[in-house]
Design a protein that fits this description.
The structure is a single chain. By secondary structure, the chain is of the alpha+beta class. Helix content is 15%, strand content 37%. The strands form 6 sheets. Strands 1, 2, 4, 11, 12, 15, 17, 18, 31 and 32 form a 10-stranded mixed sheet that branches. Strands 19, 21, 24, 27, 28 and 29 form a 6-stranded antiparallel sheet that branches. The longest helix is centred in the N-terminal third of the chain and has 27 residues, at 54-80. The structure holds zinc ion. Residues 9, 11, 94, 208 line the site of zinc ion (ZN).
Length: 494
Amino acid sequence: MGIFFGDVHCHCGITYGYGSLENALESARKRLDFCSITPHAMWPDIPEIDQFNRYLVTYHKEAFDRIGRNWESVRKTVEEANDDGRFVTLHSYEMHSSFYGDHHFVSPDPSLELIYGKSPAEVAARSRCDLVAIPHHIAYPSGYRGINWDEFRSDISPVVEVYSKHGLGLNDAGYREYYHTMGPRDGRNTAYVGLRRGKKFSFGASTDHHAGFPGSYGDGLIAVEAPSRTRKDLWTALKAGRTYAVTGDRILCDFSMGSLRFGESGAVDGRALIHAAAKASDEIARMVILKNLRPLAIYDSERDGLPHSCEGPYKIRLELGWGDDKEKGFEWDTSVRCIGGKLKGYEPCICGRSILSPSEDMKQNDNINRILFNASLTDDTFSFAVETYKNISPLHPQTSSAVIEVEGDKDTVLDFSINGRTERHTIKELLETSICGEVLSYASCSYKIHRAVPRSLYEVSMDIEDGGASGDFYHMEVYERNGHAAFVSPIFLL
Ligand SMILES: [Zn+2]
């Protein structure tokens, strides 16, 4: 079994987002295992036009008309991008609904039709294709495109999107609140409340990006556990809810109880072993096993992780960006050479342009999502080229990074070449501090070589025993020191 990361809810210029479909698919292919580009297709109970919503209602209707005309060519382009075994595409479209909350329908079937139903259930019933209806940005208020738990159906919605560019809809207290123009999250519409009300579903995340950059770092990814990276296997696992949500970093998680794995329902015999493990991209600050939403076991790095071993392998992030130019991207050309050690892998954390909905002053721009990204790895050299943009605010980064995994010891040397600048550091130095530099002068683009994180801090596991009864459910949450998290789907006891 492998863990595969994708984005099944990402918008572009085929409806009211920005950037071409072709660019979106091409960039996804380089960074993700699978993806779906989602046109906005319908809003059966769209509000009547009034003095406040004229622009909003108009751009929605215009987009729905346009996808109605272009659906066939969109499907064809998405289908042609499917490269089974390497990069999988899925078909999808989105229904807004004031009453039921917004959903995106995802299907492996290239004959997926746009069905103009009044509810997600009606679309699912009338569809001749295999599909799921994934509720998203669930924590908006009911009647205002947040989830309607009274109408929720696990059979058509095995997965709920609990995190996206809108924020975190898992619970009301967790980081991050919703700050889009659609308003704050309502505590009554979170995933925790759905679970408390006895609804059964798995967790997923996707970006809901509106500038055609699937998997834009920090906006959410869905992790799927499947035997291979084929459409058939990924779809079977997604439909079965063998998924979890990550906010940005590709945290590898393992969570089981007896013979049941995350996302599964079943019975356990008496007391059963619960196994929880995570391999993260940064130090794991906390890992929590929850039973019926209450903590059952907690790993806390400040309590349990120290004193830790500084033995390798190590994870080191090279973060690039900053600068002061809003419009123009900055092209990075970097490499890292490893001396006295071996490079084992890398993880791309690449940011697209940050857009969540259209605005009157913004024109269509097909190439807004044509963002340079190339990476390659050998045993001793990692090459990384990427384009970055100015941070939106000091609390809203637009940086991109790559996390490399280095096998070696404290004397291993990393030789960085960053747009002509050289940085040469031992792991011993990087275990103590990060290193930053500016490319040109004050307020120019900058880089940061993050501190080295040893395996004992980024890889954690817990094994406990518990005797659950029918109706109990268990899930896992993992929090990295840098704020990123994984929310691993519940195991439901029958
Ligand atoms: Zn959307």
